[in-house]
Amino acid sequence: MLWANSGEIPGLPVAISAIINLYIKGIKVNINSITQFIEKNWDESAIPALMEYVSIPAVSPFFARDWQETGYLRDALNLAKTFCQDMELENSSIQIIADKGRTPILLIEIDATSPDNKDTILLYGHLDKQPPAKGWDKNKGPFSPVIENNKLYGRGSADDGYCLFTAVTAIKALQALKIPHGRCVILIETCEESGSFDLEYYLEKYEQNIGTPNLIICLDSGCGDYDRLWITTSLRGAIVGELEACILTQSIHSGTSGIVASSFRILRQVLDRVEDSKTGELPVDELQGRIPEKRLEQINMAAQILDKTIASAIPLVDGAVTMSHDPVELLVNSTWKPTLSYIGVQGMPPVDKSANAIRESTKLMLSFRTPPNVETVVAAETLKTILENDPPYGARVKFKLLKHAKGWDMPEIDDGLETKINKAASMCFGNTPCYVGEGGSIPFMTLLADKFPQAKFLITGVLGPQSNAHGPNEFLHIPYAKKLTLVICCIISDSRQG
Predict the structure, then answer these.
(1) Whole-angstrom Cα distance, residue 453 to residue 212?
(2) 111 cis-preceded (ω within 30 degrees of 0)
(3) Count of CB atoms situated within 10 Å of the CB of 407
(4) Of 64, 188, 373, 477, whose CB count within 10 A is highest?
(5) DSSP symbol at 129
(6) Is 68 in the same domain as 167?
(7) What are the pLDDT digits (tens) for 368-380?
(8) What is the pLDDT of residue 119?
(9) Which residues of 438-450 are buried (b: 16+ CB within 10 A; e: fewer)?
(10) Sequence-ordered list of residues with C-beta below 8 angstroms from that of 112, at least 6 positions apart, any chain
């Protein structure tokens, strides 16, 4: 797919960019032509549309129960559809589908340039967003797009608004330069941040439209730095639920402490059953998973690249340190070990409004991350039993499971696809790609793997150091997004050739 000769590419070392051309079925295209098209389209079309998308508070249904009334999810899809229509994709069908009671999706079908090419590439992304979060810098806000130092700040810019613009721009670049490509289907959903609860329904109902993908490209993951392509090899699963301890029918004067236990202390005792507070270890057998040898090899390679940057990518307060100084251990911890995070609390008033009283109850929102190969259904049932059985002081302790999703481990890719990915990544970034797991979850990955067992997967994304998805000051690194678009363009082109 990628051979030699000619043309300097912005952002690439001259020694590399001076020897690259794209040869497909006898067609010679200077890669600089593709790069210029992508740069121009991003600057003139994609970025303005993406900024408009950022301004839409399209918060995911789990966090915005009134999503149907506000219509923000539909607004985001309407904007995306308009962008696609303005791009004038050839031989394409673009439709918003909103079946009754379901979150809407955008489904785009683009015919192969040759009827002989029977391959189908499915490109996935989502346009629903995490809640706004507090703590944004003074000149920034979740729904107030700002470009600063080549970064587009705003909720959803990187998670995962850029995906649609990347996919469409990559395909349009091929069409504009008369470069052959296989059949492409772009599927954009609007409940990913809520667990993709409608995705299976749409995959089943519109399976004739989607077809049987040979390759699935998911643009909803992360990158360890902005110097190379990062390919996600695994994703952890998730178990999210509410743990509540209730000891009183109403709050009472704290002078009675010593007679009745604090509901918070009861929770501390119960949580000791599933987490070692000193080490963070979760001593529950059903939460443990074996790390494949190949993944350990990839982690060791990634750790060499990220040795000095893992800690610096975390916004630690002065004097604070990470859980280990060993980069290998940190990557294992964050990709193949179970962890517990406390992401919400209810029952505690703000400090400036707190009465000197023993409260009747405390509720915590728990987020367990599980190794990719753990069965989250079984693990969730085990956690519920451990947390609820034999409550301290006879208190009422309940664990309410809200959602769970199994993790994912990437099926092995064939040599032809791996060669194509490595060539494209090396050409566009000047560095070979890096393969590593992600600590987060993409719930639909297992669903797609089960639905399309013969498909190969390319999972990648733009969530790099300080990009801070789900938190304040989320940003899209624009130069990285442009290079990633070029990578996707090269991988999609001439999909039948290795």
Answers:
(1) 10
(2) no
(3) 28
(4) 188
(5) B
(6) yes
(7) 999 999 999 999 9
(8) 92
(9) bbbbbbbbbbbbe
(10) 118, 119, 180, 181, 182, 183
- The pair of structure tokens assigned to 462 is 């733009």
56 and 125 within one domain: yes
Q: Tell me: do 225 and 349 sit in the same domain.
A: no
Please list the ranges in the chain whose pLDDT falls under 50.
1-21, 23-27, 495-498
- Whether 429 and 259 have beta carbons less than 8 Å apart is answered as no
Render 254-314 in DSSP notation, one character per residue. GGGBTTB--HHHHHHHHHTTT--TTT-----GGG--PPPHHHHHHHHHHHHHHTTTTTTTS
DSSP track, 437-479: EESS--THHHHHHHH-TT-EEEEEEEE-TT--TTSTT-EEEHH
The answer to whether the beta carbons of residues 486 and 171 sit under 8 Å apart is no
Q: What is the pLDDT of residue 494?
A: 64
pTM: 0.85
Q: Which of 357, 374, 405 is the last residue of a domain?
A: 405
DSSP line for 314-329: S-PPTT---S-S-HHH
| Residue 1 confidence (pLDDT) | 34
- Extract the tokens encoding 435: 């393969």
Q: Which two tokens stand for residue 53?
A: 């998308």
Spatial distance between the Cα atoms of 284 and 346, rounded to a whole number of angstroms = 26
Q: The tokens 């599933």 sit on which residue?
A: 274
End-to-end CA distance of the chain: give it in Å, rounded: 7
What would the pLDDT profile of 225-253 be if each residue is shown by its tens digit? 999 999 999 999 999 999 999 999 999 99
Using only C-alpha atoms, the chain has a radius of gyration, in whole angstroms, of: 24
Q: Examine the domain organization and report whether 96 and 220 are in the same domain.
A: yes
Task: Please check whether residue 317 lies inside any domain of the structure.
Answer: no
- What pLDDT is recorded for position 11? 44
| CATH code of the domain covering residue 344 | 3.30.70.360
pLDDT at residue number 302: 96
Tell the residue number behind the tokens 């008033």, with chain if given.
349
Residue 368 is inside which H or E element, if any?
A: strand 361-370
Q: How many domains does the chain have?
A: 2
Last residue of a domain, one of 386, 405, 424: 405
Provide the β-strand partners of residue 217.
123, 458
In a domain, 323, yes or no: no
- Between CA 76 and CA 62 the distance in angstroms is 17
Pick the closest to residue 23 from 337, 423, 325 (CA basis): 423
Domain-located, residue 498: no
Using a 10 angstrom Cβ sphere, with 0-12 exposed, 13-18 middle and 19 or more buried, the burial of residue 197 is middle
